[in-house]
Each structure stands twice: as structure tokens, then as C-alpha cells.
Amino acid sequence: MSEPNINTRKNRSYSLVPYDPSWPLEFDKLNTELSPIFGDNLISFNHFGSTSIPGMIAKPTIDVCVEVKDLKEVKSMRSKFESLGYESWGNYVGTEEEYFTLNDSNGNRIYNVHILQTGNQFIEHYIAFRDYLRTHPEKVAEYIAIKEKLREEFGLDDYNSYNLTKAEKMETLKNEAKEWYKREHKNPE
Questions:
Q1: CB contact set of 15 (below 8 Å; sequence gap of 6+)
Q2: pTM score of the predicted model
Q3: Strand partners, 44
Q4: What would the DSSP string read from start to end of the chain?
Q5: What is the DSSP annotation of 132-183?
Q6: One digit per residue, pLDDT tens: the chain, 189 residues?
Q7: 137-154 and 121-135 are packed helices; what angle lies between their axes, rounded to 10 degrees?
Q8: Which of 110, 109, 115 is nearest to 96 (CA)?
């Protein structure tokens, strides 16, 4: 049987809530709990996504990008995550990753953990988008407007349509973030 992927995801309801200042604290707690599992394989543990952007409305789910030296080593650790209550999705979103989720006792997703091998372009993309929004409040407002419009269009029971359309509408903003990040982090000649 093949692993599930983003194209076979069951539709579900979702919520968008105002920014919660406890989200960074929740990330810190998660970092403390999970980082030791990776040992010397860990390079970085990053909070990204909407819960990492002050002022952003978001699904109340902490997104984490874990950068590791060797992704194969993580594949062999799936049972460790499962013993902590995480569900393993493997290479769910097609970015050469190990993806784990954790739900609360009510079945609400609380953590998305994306583990990627160093050199994977998505590590930089996630961080670039986060940092761009953290330093450009007008872009946060633009992103909020997109989310609110899509929530109005699709309601809160059609996450797949909301998320797919959001991804399409966010392309320009994500490209702006990548270009900004390259300019900000270019190596001096």
C-alpha cells in the first residue's frame, strides 16, 4: 500500500482564529520535547507558518520545520514518533520529507512536523516566507485578507478547497518573499 499524500487527503473542517501569543511558547515546548529525539542528526528546529507570524489569523496548529543531516535516519524513527502519539504520513506533501502530525483529545490537529534533509529548498522557502511576513506588516494584512476572503467563499467545512486556492493565491507573495530573502542573505563578494 502506498503512503497517503496531499492529493488523497480527506476533506475536513478547520478554523481560523486571531493570533495567540501563546503559540511561540507552545513551539518552544515542542522544541524542548522533540529536539533530543534527533540527537546529532538535528541541524535546526524552526517555527514557521501562520502561527509564527505575530498578528496573523491562523489555524491553531503549530508548524515546525526540522532540518536534519540524514532523512533516512528519521525514516527509521517513525515508531518513536508514533509512541508519542504522532501519526506518520511519510513523504505526504511531496517535498522529500518525513511528515508527522499530532491531534489533541478532541481530534483537532495541534502540530505539523515537517522533517527535511539539509539542502532541501523548502527549508529556505518556509523560513523566507516567515521572515518576510515578520518584517513586512503590510504583507501580513494582505495575507489575512486572502484568508478571510477564502473562508467566506468556502466556509469552514471545505479545507481542501480553501487550502488549494490559498496556495494558488499565495504564489506571488511567496515569490516576493524568496526574492527578498535572497537579497537579505546574499553572500558579500
A1: 59, 60, 156
A2: 0.89
A3: 67
A4: -PPP-GGGPPP-----B---TTHHHHHHHHHHHHHHHHGGGEEEEEEESGGGSTT--B-S-EEEEEEES-HHHHHTTHHHHHHTTPEEEESTTSSSEEEEEEE-TTS-EEEEEEEEETT-HHHHHHHHHHHHHHH-HHHHHHHHHHHHHHHHHH-SS-HHHHHHHHHHHHHHHHHHHHHHHHHHTPPP-
A5: HHHH-HHHHHHHHHHHHHHHHHH-SS-HHHHHHHHHHHHHHHHHHHHHHHHH
A6: 455 445 556 888 889 999 999 999 999 999 999 999 999 999 999 999 999 999 999 999 999 999 999 999 999 999 999 999 999 998 877 778 999 999 999 999 999 999 999 999 999 999 999 999 999 999 999 999 999 999 999 999 999 899 989 999 999 999 999 999 999 988 655
A7: 110
A8: 115
Q: What are phi and psi of 28, to 5 degrees?
A: -60, -40
Cell of 178: 524568496
Q: What angle do CA 147, 133, 99 make, to 5 degrees?
A: 70
